């Protein structure tokens, strides 16, 4: 998953292409590759330093892509959104895991489909330890720092605001900061609260005593968080694949889904080893705080599992919530958008 602070195509259309397998060479090495990798190549723009991008790294490092007949290549996630979109449109990239923040992009024509929730929440709304803000209702009229307009932290906060009777468009002021500067902005009094993601949220809590007002990781089914609209055991991040690939080569698309499903299950059983792979292989940059212990804890908290049934239920829920918050069109047909946005393959068949 890319950092949640980056808005993926909310204001533009995305055409998510597929890399065609077996590029026309008749050499012995090409024939060998064809035999080893039944479905050919996939290119995943996964390298962005994100801890919760673990399914990409583990599917590659532990051989799940290869097991399912895919020759995978992990590449850098472009910082420039237009480059990312162009890469998908041209067929340079194949699939990516991301958030329910993609729903507005899909409504506007993005040719991608969610296929199962892949892990639970990693987003929080925090306030400094001495803040007078104790509950969501106290946010009315306040300034909230976020990584980007249309980011998942903004959406999560907006869901809680509307459940508290506060209009997220007019009842608060949103102010954008770089993700790594959000906590400092709050400590300096430049904002009253921050919507952010792990590991930044976890670090602010552990090192600076920030207090949690909203947490979209409601694995325990906490009634207080549920009342804020934080769905019990709800998925935060999803696997996305190309609509074109689903239509033209569903067997290959299923191979991608199987790879991620197996990787997510492995992560859930081996969080510490996953953390070591992320740090030792350079997928995640080591710091004093970003160490094996803390990365392991974050991975444990996110409860990795690619679940097709509950993923669809969760996306349906967020469709309703984002429409109510004003981030989807007023005339949105929720069932129609869900059909457009979600693919539920039968993985028992190729």
TrEMBL record:
Matching InterPro entries: SsuA/THI5
Q: Name one Pfam family in it.
A: NMT1
Q: Does the keyword Signal apply?
A: yes
Record flagged with keyword Signal: yes
Q: Which keywords does the record carry?
A: Signal
Per UniProt, residues of the SsuA/THI5-like domain are 54-273
Signal peptide extent: 1-21
Q: Which PANTHER family match?
A: ALIPHATIC SULFONATES-BINDING PROTEIN-RELATED
What is the designated name of this protein?
Answer: ABC transporter substrate-binding protein
The lineage is: Bacteria, Bacillati, Bacillota, Bacilli, Lactobacillales
